[in-house]
TrEMBL record, chain A:
Predominant location: membrane
Species of provenance: Salegentibacter echinorum
Gene Ontology CC: plasma membrane
Family: Belongs to the CPA3 antiporters (TC 2.A.63) subunit C family.
Bilayer topology term: Multi-pass membrane protein
Entry protein name: Multisubunit sodium/proton antiporter, MrpC subunit
Keywords: Cell membrane, Membrane, Transmembrane, Transmembrane helix
Automatic annotation (TrEMBL), chain B:
UniProt-recorded name of the protein: Multisubunit sodium/proton antiporter, MrpA subunit
Keyword Membrane: yes
Keyword Transmembrane in annotation: yes
Membrane disposition: Multi-pass membrane protein
TM ranges: 75-95, 107-124, 159-183, 203-228, 271-289, 296-314, 320-341, 362-384, 404-424, 445-468, 495-516, 560-581, 596-616, 621-641, 647-665, 685-703, 741-760
The NADH-Ubiquinone oxidoreductase (complex I) chain 5 N-terminal domain, residue ranges: 63-108
Domain (NADH:quinone oxidoreductase/Mrp antiporter transmembrane): residue spans on this chain: 124-412
Matching PANTHER family: NA(+)/H(+) ANTIPORTER SUBUNIT, NA(+)_H(+) ANTIPORTER SUBUNIT A
Localization of this protein: Cell membrane; Membrane
GO terms under biological process: monoatomic ion transport
Short name of any one Pfam family annotated for the protein: Proton_antipo_N
Cross-referenced NCBIfam families: PRK12647.1
Primary subcellular site in the record, as a coarse category: membrane
TrEMBL record, chain C:
Organism: Salegentibacter echinorum
Topology within the bilayer: Multi-pass membrane protein
Major location (coarse): membrane
NCBIfam families, sorted: PRK12509.1
Annotated protein name in UniProt: Multisubunit sodium/proton antiporter, MrpB subunit
One GO CC term on file: plasma membrane
Family: Belongs to the CPA3 antiporters (TC 2.A.63) subunit B family.
C-alpha cells in the first residue's frame, strides 16, 4: 500500500503543478488545493502508516499497551487542513477581486503591479 | 560624554519640529551647539596632555560584547576639536551662505547629524559602535552632497559617494567582525595588548586588507579617489566640513587608530606607503589640470590625504609627529581655502579660476585669508605649514630604505601642492579686476570672519608651535604608539638637507606657478586621457553591470508566475534527481509494507480518476465536483490508516470547500484555452518529472528506519501529564497549544482579509463598479 | 435550493447538528473530535440552514455577526494559556486541572477552555468567510 500511496502522492503533485502552470486563474487555485492534498498525504505517509490503531489510549488504561499510529504527523496535517481552508478561501476571493479589477483571467496579463495598467 | 555625542542627533530631531523658526535670523544660533561642544572637549586638554585617557562605557548589547564605549585620548581629542571647532565656523558661515534657503533647517539637521556621527566615530572604543557611526557619516554625507536634490548631477555624485563609501563600510564591517573573532573582543583598548597575536594570525593579511579598503574608500585614496571631486557638487560649507576637514579624514583616523593594533608589519607599512605615495603624486599632478576652484582644492585634498596615509605607512616616530602636525596644518589651510572659494562663488558667481582676478580690490579680508592659507599650504615660513613640511621631509629622509624614491615623490607632491594652493588662494585676488566682476560685493561678516580665524591660527601656531606641542601633538603621537616627549617643535632647524629640500620646493613651486597658469586648454588635453582613469573604468563596469542585471531580471523576474514556478521546479528536479538517481539505489522491502486490500485499491483508483478528471475537464463545475471526490477519497485513506480525527476534519473542510467554490464559481472567470499544445506538453513533462521525483523520494525515505521519539513521548505522557486520551487532540490543545493559538490567529486574519476584500470599498472598486 | 423538504428538515437539523458539534468538541480529549472538527460541524449546520432558509433568516437567528466569535474565541484561548501565568506563576500554557473529575466531561482543565476557544474561532472564521462571499456573490 505504501508504494501505491507514494504513486498517488506523485500524481497529486504532478497534477497540482501542472494546474499551477496554466494561465487561468481558477486552475491556479485548483492546482494549489491539489498540491496541498499531496503534501498532506506525503507527511502522513512519511510518518509511517499503521492500520486499525488510532492514537487513542484505551479506555481502561493510562498508557498505550499495543502499537499505535504516530500522532505527530496527524496533528500536523490536522492544522494544515484547516489552514489550507483559510488559504483557499482567501485565494478564491483574491482571484475574484483581481478578476473584477483587472478584467482578465490571463495570469500573463497580470504581471504589472500598478493598479491602472 | 554620551550627551555630548548625542547632542547633534537630538538637535536634528528638535529641528524636525521647530525647523521653520530656524530658517530665518535664528539660524546662526545653531552654531552654539558646535561651539559648546568645542569648549567641552577643550576642557579635557590639560588632562589628556598629562597622559590621562578618559573612558566611558554604556551597555548596549552586552551579550554580544557590543557597547557604547568611548575613549578620549590624544588622537580622538584632536579629531573632536577639529570636528567641533571647524564645525562651529562652518555652522556660522552657512547661516550667511545659505541665507533664506527654503530648506536651511534641513541642512542644519543633516550637518548636526553628521557632526554627531563623526564625534561618535572618533570617540568609539568599541569597533561595532565605530562601524555604526562610520555608516552614519556615510549616510548623512549622502544627504549633504545631494542637498541640491533638484539637480541631476548633484544626485548622481551623492550616489557615487554613497556607493563608494558604502562599499567601504561593508568592508569595514567584515574587517571588524573578523578582527572581533580573531581577538575575542570588540573593545579597542583590549585589542592593544594583542598586537603580536594578531600579527601572527593567519588571517592578518585578510583583516588588514579589509580595513585598507574601508579607509581608502572613505579617504578617497587611489583608485577610489574619484568620488571626492564629484562630491564638490555639494554646497561649499559641506565641501569644507566633510571633504576637507573631517569626513575624508575618517579613513586616516581609522588607520591611525589601528596602527598600534595592526601596524608594525611589512604588509601594513608597504601597502600604505605605496597607495599613499601613488595617491599623493597622481592627484597633486591632476590638480594642475583643473580650472574649477573647488576642483583644484578637491585634488589637492586627496593629495594631502595621500601624504597622511603615506606618513602612517612610514610608521616611524618622526612620521607620526609629522602626521599629527600635518593633519592640523591641512585642516586649517584647506578649510580656509574652501571657505574662500565659497565666498568667491557666492559673491562673484563663478568658480572658474581663469575668469577670476583682482578680487582683492573688493574683498580685502578674504584676500588676506586666502593669501595666508596659500602660504601655509606652500609651506613658507612662518606658517605652521612650513613646520608640517619640514617634519614630513625629515621623516622621509630618515626612513632608511628607498629613501631617494620616497623623497622625490614627496618633494614632487609638495611642489604641485604649492601650485594648487597659490592657484586657489592667491590667483583670484591678483591682477586687474575684470569688467564682469566690477559689481562684486563684500560678503557679510559671518562669511569672511571664519576663514580669517582659521588663517590667523595657521600663522599663530607656526610662530608659537609650543601652543599645540604638548597640548595636542604629543598626546596624539603617544596614542599612535610612539613616545615623542623628547622632541620639540620649532620653525628653525638649522642648515641641513631638510632646509635645502624646502628651498628647492618653494623655488620650483613658485617657478611653476608663474609658468603654468590654469587654463581650459590644459583641462581639455587631460580630458582625452579620461577613458583610462579609474573613474571611467568603474563607470563602465557599472554600466555593464546594470545591463547584466537587467538581463538577469528579465530572464528570471519576468512577472510571469508560471515562469517562476517553472524555474523553481526545474532546478528542484535537476538537483534532487541528480542525487536520487545518481547516488542512491532504491530498495523496497515489501515484507515491511502494508498489504493492499481490494477496497483500498478501489479508493485509490477513484482518487486517481478524480485527479485526472479535475485536470482535464473543460467544465469548472465538473472540476470542483471531481476535487470533492479527491478530498473524500483522501478522507477514506485517513480512515483506513488510523487517523479518525483527520478523516473528520478532511470531510468537513471538503464539504465547505465545495460549498465555497459553488458559491463563487459563476462569479469567477471561465476557463480559457490560453496555451498551445507545445506548452502543455512541456508543462506536462515537467510536472510528471516532479511527481516521479516526489514518489521516489517518499519511497527512499520509507526505506530508512523511522524515528518516533517525539510521538512516543507525547503518547506516553498524554494521559499522565495532560489528562487526555486522544493524543492528537492533546498535542493540539496542550503540548503544542501555542502553535494552535497562532494558527487560529492566522485563520482569523484570513477571514478578516476575505471580509476586507469584499466589503471594504477600496478606490479601485469605486472606479470599476 | 429552497425546497420544502430541506426547509423543514433544516429547522430540526440546526439544533441537532449544533448539539452534535458540542458533543464532538467535548469528547475531543478522549475520543476523536475536538475544537476544529466541532467548529466545522457547527459552521456546516449554519450554512445548511442558510441554504434552506436564506441568509437573512440565518443571520436573524444568530443576532450578531459571526465575526465577533473570532475575538471571543481567540481571547478565551489566550486567557486559558495566560491563566497559569497570572494565577500560579507557571509558564505560559501550563496545563491546569481540577483535582476531581466532573461527571460527563471527565477531567476539566485549561486545555478544555482552550479547545472551546478554538471551536469559536473556527465557527467565526468559517461563517464570516462563507457569509461574506454569499452576500457579495
Amino acid at each position: 500500500m505504501e508504494v501505491l500511496l507514494a504513486i498517488i502522492i506523485g500524481i497529486l503533485y504532478a497534477a497540482g503543478v501542472y494546474m499551477i502552470l496554466r494561465r487561468s486563474l481558477v486552475k491556479l487555485i485548483i492546482g494549489i488545493i491539489l498540491l496541498g492534498n499531496g503534501a498532506n498525504l506525503l507527511i502522513f505517509l512519511l510518518g509511517r502508516i499503521t492500520e486499525g490503531a488510532p492514537p487513542i489510549i484505551p479506555e481502561d488504561s493510562s498508557v498505550f499497551t499495543e502499537a499505535y499510529a504516530d500522532p505527530v504527523p496527524q496533528a500536523l496535517i490536522l492544522t494544515a487542513i484547516v489552514i489550507s481552508f483559510g488559504l483557499q478561501s482567501f485565494a478564491i476571493i483574491l482571484v475574484k477581486r483581481a478578476h473584477k479589477v483587472v478584467k482578465t483571467d490571463d495570469l500573463d496579463e497580470m504581471n504589472a503591479t500598478d493598479e491602472d495598467s | 560624554m554620551l550627551t555630548a555625542i548625542l547632542l547633534g542627533f537630538l538637535f536634528a530631531l528638535f529641528l524636525v519640529f521647530t525647523g521653520k523658526f530656524f530658517r530665518g535670523k535664528l539660524a546662526v544660533l545653531s552654531a552654539l551647539i558646535p561651539a559648546g561642544l568645542f569648549a567641552y572637549f577643550a576642557s579635557f586638554i590639560s588632562k589628556i596632555s598629562a597622559g590621562e585617557i578618559i573612558t566611558k562605557t554604556y551597555e548596549w548589547v552586552p551579550a554580544f560584547g557590543v557597547n557604547l564605549s568611548f575613549k578620549l585620548d590624544g588622537l580622538s581629542l584632536l579629531f573632536s576639536l577639529m570636528i567641533t571647532g571647524i564645525g562651529f565656523l562652518v555652522f556660522s558661515y552657512t547661516a550667511s551662505y545659505l541665507k533664506g534657503h527654503k530648506y536651511l533647517d534641513r541642512f542644519y539637521g543633516y550637518l548636526s547629524v553628521f557632526m554627531a556621527a563623526m564625534l561618535g566615530l572618533v570617540l568609539s572604543n568599541n569597533i561595532i559602535s565605530l562601524f555604526v557611526f562610520w555608516e552614519l557619516t556615510s549616510i548623512s554625507s549622502f544627504f549633504l552632497i545631494g542637498f541640491n536634490n533638484d539637480s541631476a548631477a548633484s544626485r548622481k555624485s551623492a550616489l557615487t559617494a554613497l556607493g563608494i563609501t558604502g562599499l567601504g563600510g561593508f568592508f569595514l564591517l567584515s574587517g571588524v567582525l573578523l578582527l572581533g573573532s580573531m581577538t575575542g573582543t570588540y573593545n579597542i583598548t583590549e585589542m592593544l595588548s594583542m598586537q603580536e597575536a594578531i600579527a601572527g594570525s593567519e588571517y592578518y593579511i585578510l583583516a588588514a586588507s579589509l580595513f585598507f579598503v574601508a579607509a581608502f574608500t572613505k579617504s578617497a585614496q587611489f583608485p577610489f579617489h574619484f568620488w571626492l571631486p564629484a562630491a564638490m557638487k555639494a554646497p561649499t560649507p559641506v565641501s569644507t566640513y566633510l571633504h576637507s576637514a573631517t569626513m575624508v579624514k575618517a579613513g586616516v583616523y581609522l588607520l591611525m587608530r589601528f596602527t598600534p593594533i595592526l601596524g608594525d608589519h611589512p604588509f601594513w607599512n608597504n601597502t600604505l606607503i605605496i597607495v599613499g605615495g601613488i595617491t599623493m603624486v597622481y592627484t597633486a599632478i591632476h590638480s594642475l589640470f583643473r580650472t574649477d576652484l573647488k576642483g583644484i582644492l578637491a585634488y589637492s585634498t586627496i593629495s594631502a590625504l595621500g601624504i597622511l596615509v603615506f606618513l602612517i605607512g612610514l610608521g616611524t616616530k618622526a612620521a607620526f609627529l609629522a602626521a599629527a602636525v600635518f593633519i592640523m596644518v591641512h585642516a586649517l589651510y584647506k578649510a580656509t581655502l574652501f571657505l574662500v572659494a565659497g565666498i568667491i562663488d557666492h559673491q562673484a558667481g563663478t568658480r572658474d579660476v581663469t575668469k577670476l582676478a583682482g578680487l582683492r580690490k573688493v574683498m580685502m579680508p578674504v584676500a588676506i585669508a586666502g593669501f595666508l592659507a596659500a602660504i601655509s599650504s606652500a609651506g613658507i615660513p612662518p606658517t605652521i605649514g612650513f613646520l608640517g613640511k619640514e617634519l614630513t621631509y625629515e621623516a622621509s629622509l630618515n626612513f632608511g630604505t628607498g629613501t631617494i624614491i620616497i623623497v622625490i615623490a614627496i618633494v614632487l607632491t609638495k611642489i604641485f601642492l604649492l601650485w594648487a594652493g597659490f592657484a586657489a588662494g592667491i590667483k583670484p585676488f591678483m591682477g586687474k579686476l575684470p569688467e564682469a566682476q566690477k559689481e562684486t560685493k563684500m560678503p557679510g561678516l559671518l562669511m569672511w570672519f571664519p576663514p580669517i580665524i582659521l588663517a590667523v591660527l595657521s600663522i599663530l601656531f607656526g610662530i608659537f608651535p609650543s601652543l599645540i606641542e604638548s597640548a595636542i601633538v604629543k598626546p596624539m603621537v603617544f596614542a599612535l604608539g610612539a613616545d615623542a616627549s623628547e622632541d620639540h617643535l620649532a620653525l628653525w632647524h638649522g642648515f641641513n638637507t631638510v632646509l635645502l629640500l624646502s628651498a628647492v620646493t618653494i623655488g620650483v613651486g613658485l617657478l611653476l606657478y608663474f609658468l603654468v597658469r590654469p587654463s581650459n586648454k590644459l583641462e581639455q588635453k587631460v580630458a582625452k586621457l579620461e577613458f583610462i582613469s579609474p573613474r571611467s573604468i568603474m563607470e563602465k563596469g557599472n554600466y555593464y553591470f546594470v545591463i547584466f542585471s537587467r538581463f538577469w531580471t528579465n530572464v528570471f523576474q519576468n512577472g510571469y508566475l508560471r515562469n517562476y514556478v517553472t524555474s523553481i521546479i526545474l532546478f528542484l528536479v535537476i538537483l534532487v534527481g541528480y542525487i536520487l538517481f545518481g547516488h542512491q539505489r532504491l530498495v523496497i522491502d515489501h515484507s515491511q509494507l502494508a498489504e493492499i486490500t481490494a477496497y483500498e485499491l478501489v479508493v485509490a483508483l477513484i482518487l486517481v480518476a478524480g485527479v485526472l478528471y479535475t485536470v482535464f475537464t473543460k467544465s469548472r463545475l465538473a472540476a470542483v465536483a471531481a476535487m470533492g471526490v479527491v478530498g473524500l477519497s483522501i478522507c477514506l485513506i485517513f480512515v483506513f490508516y488510523s487517523a479518525p480525527d483527520l478523516a473528520m476534519t478532511q470531510f468537513s473542510i471538503d464539504t465547505l470547500t465545495v460549498i465555497l467554490f459553488v458559491l463563487v464559481l459563476y462569479r469567477l472567470p471561465k476557463y480559457l484555452s490560453l496555451s498551445d499544445y507545445k506548452m502543455r506538453l512541456r508543462d506536462g513533462v515537467l510536472s510528471l518529472a516532479l511527481g516521479t521525483i516526489i514518489c521516489v523520494l517518499a519511497l527512499q525515505v520509507l526505506a530508512e528506519p523511522a524515528n518516533n521519539e517525539i510521538g512516543d513521548f507525547y503518547a506516553k505522557n498524554a494521559y499522565l501529564l495532560a489528562h487526555g486520551k486522544n493524543v492528537v487532540n492533546v498535542i493540539l490543545v496542550d503540548f503544542r497549544g501555542t502553535d494552535t493559538l497562532i494558527e487560529i490567529s492566522v485563520l482569523a486574519i484570513a477571514a478578516i482579509g476575505v471580509f476586507g476584500l469584499l466589503k471594504l470599498r477600496l478606490k479601485s472598486t469605486d472606479r470599476t463598479q | 435550493m429552497k425546497t420544502l423538504i430541506l426547509k423543514t428538515a433544516s429547522a430540526y437539523l440546526l439544533p441537532v447538528l449544533l448539539v452534535f458539534s458540542v458533543f464532538i468538541l467535548l469528547r475531543g480529549h478522549y475520543l476523536p473530535g475536538g475544537g476544529f472538527v466541532g467548529g466545522l460541524i457547527a459552521a456546516i449546520a449554519f450554512v445548511l440552514h442558510a441554504f434552506a432558509n436564506g441568509l437573512k433568516n440565518t443571520k436573524g437567528l444568530l443576532q450578531f455577526h459571526p465575526g465577533f466569535l473570532m475575538p471571543v474565541g481567540l481571547g478565551l484561548a489566550f486567557l486559558s494559556g495566560l491563566a497559569p501565568v497570572l494565577g500560579f506563576d507557571d509558564p505560559f500554557m501550563t496545563g491546569l486541572w481540577l483535582p476531581y473529575d466532573v461527571p460527563v466531561l471527565g477531567s476539566v482543565g485549561s486545555a478544555l477552555f482552550f479547545d472551546i476557544g478554538v471551536y469559536f474561532v473556527v465557527i467565526g472564521v468559517t461563517l464570516t468567510i462563507i457569509f461574506t462571499i454569499s452576500e457579495s456573490a
